[in-house]
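Database export, one record per block. Field names are fixed; values are copied verbatim from the stored entry.
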Amino acid sequence: MPNSYVLHEDKGPNTGNAYVEKIIFSLTESGEILNANKDFCTISVKKIPSIIGTSMYDFIYEDDRPLFIERINKSQGGKLIPFTFRFTGNTGSDFPFYVNMCNWISQNEVLIQAIPIVDTFVYTSVERSLIDKEVTVFDITDSAAINYDFDGKIIGVNDAYIELFGWTREQLEEQKALMVPDFLVYELIEIKDRLINGEKLVRLNTVRITKNGLMLPVNIIYLPYYDNAGVVQGIFALSRKLEETLEMKAFVEKQLGNILQQEVLIKDITRNLEFGVCQYDVIKGIYLYVSPGIETLIGIPALNLMKDPGLFVSTCHPDDKIALLRFFEELSTDMAEIEYRVLNKYEKVCWIRTKITPVMDRVGEVVRYVSITEDISKLKMQDELLRKWDMLNIVGQLSASFAHQVRNPLTTIKGFVQLLSMGQENTFGAIMTEELTKIEMIIEEFLQLAKPSNGTEFTTTSIFNEINRTISLMEKEAMLHNISFNMKLNDKDQFIHCESKQIQQVFINLIKNSIDAMPNGGEITISTVAEEGRFVKITFSDTGIGIPPQRLNKLGEPFYSLKEKGTGLGLMVSYKIIENHHGSIQFKSKEGYGTTVEISLPIITPTS
């Protein structure tokens, strides 16, 4: 043995005539000694005045200095991993010590306590492992220990934890293990808040889920995990299985009572709601829960739906069934919603909206879907009434230009009739017929716009045709306001699937807004362009007064208008129409330079 020394019962190494029980000293962050106890002086064979101000690293065996510095620095976060080092005194011997306490009593002073350990030949396996840096504090405790940050990332775990809960180390590191029941997730949030707010220890009797799915009653001690700056960054948890005691039984009964109470509360709420709630298990392919409201909405009893999930689309309107099936097939990690028609419990066709929210596990995989289904028939009716109201408003405002368009050919006809009564030769018949045909066309266009709709009937139509029909209605009114149209249509026409009257209603609203924005006259440019063969973009640009930036974001809100007597419903209806056509509408404007409106609608290939 190269550095032998005498052992004494419960005593440290023999240094002359004295025995060392423990050394206590304090250092600066750089290792400068600020204070030391009597045993430190004994082992170093120096007095206090000559020790103060010297470097502690002069007393530590050279090979042990890196570990000493590393562990002392890490202890700034409040967590010490016990370790050993060899103390080099003036006696020529290296005395091994075990550091079991390290407290930072100020920002630049750490208080350390170390106890002497026995001859290296009789080290325990744990002490030898600590010296060789083979194990950490996880292996010293017999509790199931785990250390993780607030993002859920596992920093360390011991074998006892793996044995207690059954998860492998790889599963824990990949965060695939779900030990905390859903109904107890709030516990982790509370514990995190308590540790961040300064609590040093939190004890909790709770339950955790083992790998085989059992609810295991455990007692857990939570400790804060600090970074080098002393900020709480995570949690250190020690878990022990609760024994079969009265305390454990009472705790389990209480937890089961809480679960039962929550289930009753949820069922009471969902049973009395006007909408339906469903929870679908992606892995098992079955509904875990279906509220009674579903039967009223879609006409399928909840029990039948739980037995056969495919029944959900069985009462869907034939025109909407393909879209609904595609909607379910394309569900992802994002929230989604769809509107469709069904034949409900009372065999009445109604509009339904289903919103679906994914529930994901800790690795981001969808395990369940929660859906909320509601009847939106009244909302659809209100939308239709708003569209009709807006259309009537348009018809009323177009009356002046309509009268002007009809008056001109009527004046021509009246003059020719007077000439005929004076016995003039009948050379004006062709002109009169042409003027009457023009009046007939104007009235037909006006009546087509004004007559009530029997419902939303989508057809395939040319975008050029819709623009030209709108221009024919608005051209005279534009002329009355000294406004001209500049057409820059794409070389190739595009086709869209739409309700023709609704699209014209949007175009008329936008043109009327441009006319109102140019009281002194100007120009409206209408252009089209195909985008990637998927969308056609229709642009309306004027040279009007423009819109202030702070008002752009409010366009489309009901009862918000830039006009003195406007209601704002025209743009709101326009937004809704374009949305129902699976398109988008966007406003760009600069005060004094005019406004540009871009409408994008999906292109379709017409069938021959």
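Remark 1: The domain at 139-241 is CATH 3.30.450.20 (Beta-Lactamase).
Remark 2: Residues 1-12, 119-136, 564-568 have pLDDT under 50 and may be disordered.
End of record.
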